[in-house]
Amino acid sequence: IRGKARRLKQAKEEAQMEVEQYRREREQEFQSKQQAAMGSQGNLSAEVEQATRRQVQGMQSSQQRNRERVLTQLLGMVCDVRPQVHPNYRITV
């Protein structure tokens, strides 16, 4: 009976060690997959940031190029007043 109890205890300890080993392996596998996913996500984030920076620079250079033309158009529209009767206006007598 003592031998049987000792063997059961030993089997339980061995099973616990196997479970712990399996858990460590799975945890390590998870960590490597997570690192791979986060690494690609980090690259993606850098690419998005770089693309955004290029777009902002493009908008700023476009704004600098077209600034005078747009200001001239706006001032022309505001300052060139031509009073006219609207085509939909009906004179009722």
TrEMBL record:
Is Transport included in the keywords of this UniProt record? yes
Q: Which domain of life is it from?
A: Eukaryota
Alphabetized UniProt keyword annotations: Hydrogen ion transport, Ion transport, Membrane, Transport
Give its localization. Answer: Endomembrane system
Cellular component annotations (GO), alphabetically ordered: endomembrane system; vacuolar proton-transporting V-type ATPase complex
| The keyword Transport belongs to this UniProt entry's keyword annotation | yes
Q: Which InterPro entries match?
A: V-ATPase_G (IPR005124)
Query: What does the protein in this record do?
Result: Subunit of the V1 complex of vacuolar(H+)-ATPase (V-ATPase), a multisubunit enzyme composed of a peripheral complex (V1) that hydrolyzes ATP and a membrane integral complex (V0) that translocates protons. V-ATPase is responsible for acidifying and maintaining the pH of intracellular compartments and in some cell types, is targeted to the plasma membrane, where it is responsible for acidifying the extracellular environment.
What name does the UniProt record give this protein? V-type proton ATPase subunit G
